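### Sample
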Amino acid sequence: MCRELCLSVGAPKKGRSKSQLYEICAANYWKPPLFECCKEEGPSHAKMFTYKVIVEIKEASTTVLECFGAPRLRKKEAAEHAAEGALWYLKHIGFSQRTIRLAPDMCAPCPFPL
C-alpha cells in the first residue's frame, strides 16, 4: 500500500526556504529550482547581491515562476530571500499542501501516522 506524505509551505524557518523549495519541486516531479545571481552592486568591501529563482510548474500547462529577492550582503542570504518569494507565491496559488503518492516499491515504514 502506498504512503502519503504532505508537504506544507507555511512560514519557512530561517535558512530553510531553498531546501523547502527543492523538496516541493522534487515532490511534484518538477525540475529543480534554478538560482542565479543576477546583480552585484556596490564597492568590493560592501557588495550587495541580488538573486532570482526560476521554477517550472508543470501541471495541465507549464508555468514559469521567476522570483527576485532583495539585495543582501551575502549570496546565500540573497538566494534564500528569492526562495522565500517563490514559496509565498506557491502557497497563494494552492501549493500550501501537496500530497505525494509513492510507488509501492518505494514505500518504507512511514514515520508519520496516517
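The chain has one domain: 11-95. This sample (Dicer-like protein 4) is used throughout the tutorial notebook.
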